[in-house]
Amino acid sequence: MNENCRLATALADRVRGAREELTRRWLERIAARVEIHPNRVFPTNELLDHVPLLMDRIADYLENASDEITADAPVTGKAIELGELRWSQGFDAHEILKEYEILGGVLFAFLVRTVDEIDQECPRSELLSCAHRVFRAVSVIQQVTTTHYLRLAAERVSEREQRLRGFNRMVTHELKNRISSVLGAGQLLADPEIASSEAQRARFAQMVVQNAEGMQAVLGNLLELSRTDPDARQQRNVPLPRVAAEVCRQLREMASSRGVAVRMRDLPEVEVNAAALELALTNYVSNAIKYADPGREERWVEVVGRLAGMDEGGTTCELVIEVRDNGLGVPQEKREQLFTRFYRAHGDTVTGVEGTGLGLSIVRETVEAMGGRAWAEFNGGEGSRFCISIPCRREVDRVAAQEPAMV
Question: What distance in Å separates the CA atoms of residue 165 and residue 231, rounded to the nearest whole number?
């Protein structure tokens, strides 16, 4: 094809002149296919500005095929940036491919409407060559975005594999110790010379029961963790108040036996991943009950929530859930390790409380898999606030965050 094809030059000029309109059409069609607010498809001015740059770069290649799109071109950097954004927003690879398919469709529809308005004669081969250039330009940019997205996905898989290996090693160690304790206590219990009194037999039997309960807790945590899946397509979403009510119901007897009042307050009516949030809240609330202050006349645990973090454009928000209590708290020197696997802050100071030290680490890993975070706050030496924040996923949640809070 002639590099100076006047039709190609004219079509390229039309694309440059209509780049804002083409950007708007692309944005609208993407927003119609995904479950995020249109303002979040390109959430910053810098990202929004890169779309006309894509249009200009496609127009340049349409006009001159020797002007190849290279790895160091500015448009390539923008395509990589878009891949990182789509990764953070939870898109899958199919959605990214579809996004560029939509871009190609918008461009071809525009060129079909435009080509008959251009008074330039050209061979049919040149017309087909123009179409091929547009297709190639879109494909190259799509490849850059998708490749970066897949690289991030591969890194996430590798990271999870490493964490899983470490997790399996620690769980194996914990279960091995528990089984050894059960076997040892059982053997002592079976020896009439050692377990010669009722008190001794009761002590060995209690060791068996406590370690069996510990193993049951480990396996229960693993089972719950296996039910959570960061893939939104596999989630069962239910209103947050319903999840919190179920957690309170399950822990009712435990709370009653320790004289702890558990209550819910100000929980937004937003949908959440049922398995993940139930796992997290169960760990938080059960810990608060376990470590209630026996010296207090009134002992309580509260589950409260709010929608926060709304930016100026009203496009992003986060759901924050807090489990508050007036219990023993956590010593200052032990707070940094709270979410470390197998760590128990009160293991050497509070008796009669069994645990594996896995709960908080599982909470953190589960919440982070949903793009959120888990942490703890303390007010002096009394009581605790264990918190979770996860990003709002749906437009109705963002609307709720803009409405006045109910007191």
Answer: 21
Contacts of 74 (CB under 8 A, 6+ apart): 53
Residue range(s) occupied by CATH 3.30.565.10 in the chain: 230-407
Helix 274-290 vs helix 240-250: crossing angle, to nearest 10: 40
Count CA atoms within 13 Å of residue 313 on its CB side.
10
> Where does 96-247 show beta strands of DSSP type E?
237-239
Q: Say if residues 359 and 283 touch (Cβ distance below 8 Å).
A: yes
pTM for the whole structure = 0.49
Cα separation, 74 vs 184, whole angstroms: 68
Task: Return the structure tokens found at 180.
Answer: 């050894």
Q: In what order do the strands lie in the sheet with 299-308?
A: 260-265, 299-308, 318-325, 382-391, 373-379
Spatial separation of the C-alpha atoms in residues 151 and 342, rounded to whole Å: 32
d(CA 254, CA 10): 76
Per residue in 231-275, pLDDT tens? 443 456 789 999 999 999 888 888 988 899 999 988 998 888 887
Please measure the distance between the N-terminal and C-terminal CA atoms of the chain and give it in whole angstroms: 71
Exposure letters 258-284 (e unless 16+ CB within 10 A, then b): eebebebeebbebbbbbbbbbbbbbbb
Record the tokens describing residue 68, joined without a space. Answer: 């190849």
Residue 91's pLDDT band, with cuts at 50, 70 and 90, is confident
Length of the chain: 407
CA distance 336 to 346: 14
Please provide the CATH number assigned to the domain covering 230-407.
3.30.565.10
| SS3 state of residue 237 | strand
CA 250 to chain centre: 26
